[in-house]
Design goal:
Helix content: 25-40%
CATH architecture of the largest domain: 3-Layer(aba) Sandwich
CATH superfamily of the largest domain: Response regulator
Radius of gyration: 23 Å
Number of strands: 14
Number of helices: 12
Mean pLDDT: 91
Shape: globular
CATH class of the largest domain: Alpha Beta
Distance between the termini: 64 Å
Strand order of the largest sheet: 2-1-3-4-5
Number of domains: 2
Strand content: 15-25%
């Protein structure tokens, strides 16, 4: 009797193992080698007249590396193996030459942490079927009227970020805004997105200040900034200072005792350590064990690009880039992005729809879209440019 029981036990165990590992003969036969390229540009931002902490030089790259590990963890059951071909450089020519060489070797999936002009050069140098994910440029024009054919965007646009902030401010009835803008083109673009968000959701910019000084605020903030921010009554100061030349010093130094939001203070971001729900803490743990630092939004955008390729190939069991792009833009695709929502790409602009956390340096304040901001299809499309506002046609 004991012998029979042991035999049945072994038979049952063998059956379970076969069910877990041999899902179907088709899956076992589909051995795939997948190469994904990561290209990162390291800009020289020059000296900052502030104590802003510099961004890590491996931003973006580490996110792509973690995603490759995640892809291989899933792919090993299907005999799908993923390889990351990575380059970081401050030389745009070297990046383009490397991309061309990788393309000649057969690489068709690229995650590009690059500025807009380099994204255009990259797309022009590669074949039309190549799938490129923009994980480095927030420019709204790429999603509206200067679209790069076939490109997908995992990094939120400035309009998505400022819409997320505006929804929260309006929901709190903080409708009167003082806007302070820096000198850089990126600051001007952020300020333009703030103005659009104000018009869209009912905010009112009561005054604008342009920061045009080269003052070292480490010594003079207490004297300079109260007078600089003197204006009529306002509920909040919104700052547009993407590189951090002066924005950090506005906190606690304004003429009126008011909160700071925008690129400093309470910030709308794609990702932050303070996001812990929906499995985000586990993603952080994996990332920190790999990179020995916090994950930032460029890391997250690069992670999302690599994982989107892995998710599509897992479902399709094909590495054809045209099929992969079509699947990613279909209603069958969803990315588990640890944000509590199903993440999909917009068929018009190629933008990844996603909630936007609102954070200060050590805590999560809220996450947009806020309750009450409605949309006929999904409230995620209340963030950024909707289909009628965009001239793009990626799908």
């Amino acid at each position: 009797m004991n012998t029979i029981i042991k035999y049945l036990h072994k038979t049952t165990l063998l059956t379970c193992l076969l069910a877990a590992t041999c899902i179907s003969p088709q899956l076992v036969a589909d051995e795939l080698e997948v190469r994904i390229a990561y290209l990162g540009f390291l800009p020289d931002t020059g000296p900052l007249l502030s104590n802003s902490f510099p961004e890590p030089e491996d931003r973006g790259l580490r996110g792509a590396e973690v995603a490759i590990k995640d892809n291989n963890a899933t792919g090993r059951f299907l005999k799908h193996r993923y390889q990351l071909d990575a380059l970081q450089s401050d030389d745009a020519t070297e990046i383009l030459e490397t991309a061309t060489r990788l393309h000649e070797e057969g690489v068709r999936f690229f995650v590009a942490n690059l500025p807009t002009d380099q994204l255009r050069s990259l797309q022009a140098a590669l074949s039309p079927e190549t799938l490129i994910f923009n994980s480095g440029s927030k420019d709204d024009a790429l999603r509206v009227d200067q679209c790069i054919p076939g490109m997908l965007h995992t990094l939120p646009s400035r309009a998505m970020l400022t819409d997320a902030l505006a929804q929260w401010l309006v929901s709190r009835r903080w409708n009167k805004w003082l806007l302070v803008t820096g000198q850089q083109p990126e600051d001007q673009a952020y300020a333009a997105a703030v103005k659009r968000a104000a018009d869209r959701f009912g905010g009112r910019i009561v005054d604008e200040k342009a920061w045009s000084f080269d003052t070292d605020l480490r010594r003079t903030a207490q004297q300079e900034l109260p007078m600089f921010t003197r204006a009529g009554d306002y509920d909040v100061v919104i700052v547009a200072d993407e590189q951090g030349h002066f924005g950090e010093y506005l906190l606690y130094n304004t003429w009126l005792p008011r909160p700071i939001a925008g690129t400093q203070g309470m910030m709308p971001v794609a990702w932050h350590k303070a996001v812990e729900a929906w499995g985000a803490a586990q993603l952080h743990s994996r990332f920190e064990a790999h990179a020995d630092r916090w994950m930032n939004e460029l890391d997250y955008a690069s992670w999302a690009g690599v994982r989107s390729v892995g998710e599509a190939i897992t479902n399709l069991r094909s590495t054809d880039p045209v099929e992969v792009r079509a699947f990613i833009l279909s209603d069958k695709f969803q990315l588990a992005g640890f944000k509590g929502r199903r993440l999909e790409f917009r068929g018009w602009s190629g933008q990844l729809k996603q909630p936007i956390p609102l954070v200060h340096p050590r805590a999560l304040v809220s996450q947009s879209p806020q309750e009450g901001f409605l949309h006929p299809i999904t409230d995620l499309d209340t963030l950024g440019y909707d289909a009628p506002e965009s001239q793009c046609a990626v799908n």
